[in-house]
Amino acid sequence: MSDIxxxxxxxxxxxxxxxxxxxxxxxxxxxxxxxxxxxxxEVLVEVxxxxxxxxxxxxxxxxxxxxxTPISGTIPALGxxxxxxxxxxxxxxxxxxxGPLMAQSYTTMAADFFxxxxxxxxxxxxxxxxxGVTTGLTAYFGIYEVGQVKKNExxxxxxxxxxxxxxxxxxxxxxxxxxxxxxxxxxxxxxxKNEIGVDASIxxxxxxxxEQIKLHAPEGIDIFFDxxxxxxxxxxxxxxxxxxxVIICGAISQYSHxxxxxxxxxxxxxxxxxxxxxxxxxxxxxxxYEEASKELLDLYNKGKLKVPFHIxxxxxxxxxxxxxxxxxxxxxxxxVKV
Length: 338
Ligand SMILES: NC(=O)c1ccc[n+]([C@@H]2O[C@H](COP(=O)([O-])OP(=O)(O)OC[C@H]3O[C@@H](n4cnc5c(N)ncnc54)[C@H](OP(=O)(O)O)[C@@H]3O)[C@@H](O)[C@H]2O)c1
What we know:
By secondary structure, this protein is an alpha/beta fold. The chain has helices at residues 55-58, 124-131, 133-146, 163-174, 186-196, 209-216, 231-237, 269-272, 289-301, 318-325, and strands spanning 9-15, 28-34, 42-51, 78-86, 96-99, 106-110, 115-116, 154-157, 178-183, 200-203, 221-226, 240-248, 276-279, 309-313, 333-337. It folds into two domains: 9-117 and 308-337, Medium-chain alcohol dehydrogenases, catalytic domain (Quinone Oxidoreductase, Chain A, domain 1); 133-283, Rossmann fold. 26% of the residues lie in helices and 26% in strands. Strands 3, 4, 5, 6, 7, 14 and 15 form a seven-stranded mixed β-sheet that branches. A six-stranded parallel β-sheet has the order 10-9-8-11-12-13, sandwiched between helices. A two-stranded antiparallel ribbon has the order 1-2. Helix 2 (124-131) runs parallel beside helix 3 (133-146) and helix 3 crosses helix 9. The protein is globular and about 70 Å long. The mean pLDDT is 95. It binds NADP nicotinamide-adenine-dinucleotide phosphate. Residues 53-55, 134, 138, 159, 161-165, 183-184, 188, 227-228, 249-253, 280-282, 325-326, 328, 330, 333-334 line the site of NADP nicotinamide-adenine-dinucleotide phosphate. NADP nicotinamide-adenine-dinucleotide phosphate binds at residues 53-55, 134, 138, 159, 161-165, 183-184, 188, 227-228, 249-253, 280-282, 325-326, 328, 330, 333-334.
C-alpha cells in the first residue's frame, strides 16, 4: 500500500484519567481516526503486536522516569509491525520493524525510531517474548551481567511466572544454578515446576514465603532477582548468604503508589553478609542488544528456552491487558495482538 489518498482507519488508546492505584479499563478511552500520511523521513506502520509492560503504568503519573503521558495522550507501548508506506531510505514497504509504536493500530513516525527485525520469519509474539527489549534482553542482562550467576548457586526469582521472570529462571538453570521461583497461585507454581523447570516454587498468595525459602535454601540464597519489591524484597534480604547479589529489575507491587514506595527495612543484611544490591535498566546495555539477541535466539532454536506468553486480542483490549498485568492475570509475557 503506498496510496496516501486511501489511508486506513486507526484506533488508539488514550489516557482519560490518571489511575488512582492500579490501572483500570475505565482510566482509558479509545479514539478512531484516519492514520496520518507519512512525511519525508517517516513511515506508516501497521501494528501487529504490542508488549504490555509494567513501565507503562509509571508513565501514567504526572512525573515519570520513562516520560509522562498527558491526559488525552496516546499510551506508549513497544511492539512489532509492518511498514506499509515508507518515505524513508531506511525501510521499504513490507519490512517488519520493532520500536515504540504506541497503543494504536497504525503508527506514523520518524523511521529512526524503528529497527528492522532481523528474523521476520519468527512470529511477532515469539519475537517479543524472546528477543524483546523488556523480556529476553532484560532477563539476559539482569541475570548474566548484573547477577553474574554461577553453577550451583541458589537463585530466588520473584514474579517468576511472568515474561521476564520465566526467562530468568531458565537462563539461571542453563548456567547450572538451583532456581526457586515465587508466583501467585498454584496454577502458576505448577507451570514453573512442570514447564519452566524450576527446582522449587513458592506460592506467595497461599504459603509463608520466609518458611518456604528456609525449607528450599536452608543455607540462604546467593541471588535474589526481584521483579516485585515491597514485602517480598525484605523477606529475601533476610535470607541472603555471604556475597549474595540482590538484583533490582523492577518493583511491580510499588508502581501504583510511586510517591510512597515501601522500601526494604532489612537492608543492613547487605552489610552483615558482605552482599550487594544493584539495580539496572535494560537500556544500560543497549550497545550489546545484538550480541545478546543472537545468543537468545540460538538457545531458543536449540529448544533450550521456552517462551510462554499470554495474548489479548485486539487493540480495544489494551486497557484490559494492562489491568491484568497488575492483578496477575498473565502467565508468561503479556501482549496484545492488534
Ligand atoms: N529493569 C528493566 O529494564 C526492566 C525491563 C522490563 C521489565 N522490568 C520489570 O520486570 C518486572 C516484570 O515485568 P514483566 O513485563 O515481565 O511482567 P510480568 O512479570 O509478566 O507480569 C507482572 C506479574 O507481576 C505479578 N504482580 C503484579 N502485581 C503484583 C503485586 N502487587 N505483588 C506481587 N506480584 C505482583 C503478577 O504475577 P503473580 O500472579 O505471580 O502475582 C503479574 O503477572 C516488572 O517489575 C517490570 O517493571 C524491568
